[in-house]
């Protein structure tokens, strides 16, 4: 076989392979990207299933090595609650981080469902929200330590995924003990 024929043979075999891989690589990258950013149902992947017995939930959180309990106070007609559920807590990176470090519970501030508060008393969700935690508007994101003491409270929606992630890191790192969240957030922005 002459050199010219060898080159033609190599070119005819190599060309379809190059074309195949040139098409396959972008498809794989797009697939990986879309899987990583696919929104997931927050009620299935963010909030933990609970019977509403907070002392029992705290015991479970301690046993699992969690940093605390997050209570997401919401109501049905709240547009900012919907924003949080559709744009922030539906993201897999948020869900994975928060599920790892916190027990995440949702409370309806208008709910008549009974629950057991951190003191072991049976109360309705709306009383737990308003009478015990002064929640009037939603959303309110409250973090509690493993003794049931509130350690941070955020009123309203966050400014997206990044701020919500910083809020979790703020609690997990223990920065809440000596730094206001606004200062912590500023410090994190300066690092970027």
Automatic annotation (TrEMBL):
InterPro entries: SoxW, Thioredoxin-like_fold, Thioredoxin-like_sf
SUPFAM superfamilies for the chain: Thioredoxin-like (SSF52833)
TM region(s), chain numbering: 12-33
Sequence ranges assigned to domain Thioredoxin-like fold in this UniProt record: 63-158
Keywords: Membrane, Transmembrane, Transmembrane helix
CDD domains for the chain: SoxW
Keyword Coiled coil: no
Entries under Gene3D superfamilies matching the protein: Glutaredoxin
Name of this protein: Thioredoxin-like fold domain-containing protein
Species of the source: hydrothermal vent metagenome
Upper classification of the organism: unclassified sequences, metagenomes, ecological metagenomes
């Amino acid at each position: 076989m002459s050199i010219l024929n060898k080159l033609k043979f190599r070119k005819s075999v190599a060309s379809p392979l190059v074309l195949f891989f040139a098409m396959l690589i972008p498809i794989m990258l797009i697939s990986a990207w879309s899987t990583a950013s696919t929104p997931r149902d927050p009620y299935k992947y963010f909030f933990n299933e609970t019977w509403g017995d907070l002392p029992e939930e705290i015991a479970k959180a301690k046993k699992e090595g969690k940093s605390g309990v997050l209570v997401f106070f919401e109501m049905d007609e709240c547009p900012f609650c919907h924003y949080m559920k559709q744009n922030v807590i539906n993201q897999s990176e948020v869900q994975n981080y928060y599920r790892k470090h916190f027990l995440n519970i949702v409370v309806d501030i208008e709910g008549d469902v009974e629950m057991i508060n951190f003191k072991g008393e049976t109360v309705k969700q709306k009383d737990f929200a308003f009478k015990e935690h002064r929640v009037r508007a939603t959303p309110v994101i409250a973090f509690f330590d493993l003794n049931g003491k509130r350690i941070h409270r955020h009123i309203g929606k966050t400014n997206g995924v990044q701020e919500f992630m910083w809020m979790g890191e703020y609690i997990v790192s223990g920065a809440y003990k000596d730094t206001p969240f606004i200062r912590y957030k500023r410090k994190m922005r300066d690092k970027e």
